[in-house]
Specification:
Length: about 150
């Protein structure tokens, strides 16, 4: 396609800007000695993208001046990593919510107090608030986002 630029390191695809626009956005030189649009060390100018048409740039591989599509196994690995990152992010967010939500924190602390009353009656030691919150955070790690 005309006026397509692909970043060699990140596979970022930008369609439309002139070499002057690219220089303004990213610095560097985007023309050859004759003043025509040209690839540089960081960006490919107008590479053949027919082999990657319809696929997200996260599945593209830039090698030299060529843009190709990852094989299915590599695309599956990318998808698995994206899913894991989303799950990890969700768990981290939920753990942070324990500290940000004062009402939830108060409910948890009251529950711990009530559990401790029963534990003392049973001759067991008490659970500290830190232990209770750590147990909740550990439980978050075992849950799926839809649970």
């Amino acid at each position: 396609m005309a006026n397509d630029w692909v970043n060699r390191a990140t596979s970022q695809h930008i369609s439309g800007p002139s070499p002057a626009d690219m220089t303004a956005r990213f610095g560097g030189v985007f023309v050859d000695g004759g003043g025509n649009a040209a690839s540089n060390a960081d960006w490919l100018w107008s590479p053949d993208l027919t082999g990657v048409a319809g696929f997200s740039t996260q599945y593209w591989v830039v090698s030299g001046d060529t843009v190709t599509l990852m094989d299915q196994a590599a695309r599956d690995e990318v998808d698995a990593q994206i899913a894991l990152d989303a799950l990890t992010s969700n768990r981290t967010f939920n753990k942070g919510e324990l500290n940000r939500k004062i009402i939830l924190k108060a409910v948890v602390l009251v529950m711990i107090d009530q559990i401790n009353v029963l534990r003392i009656q049973a001759g067991l030691g008490t659970v500290t608030p830190a232990q209770g919150l750590a147990a909740i955070e550990a439980k978050i790690d075992t849950l799926q986002p839809s649970e």
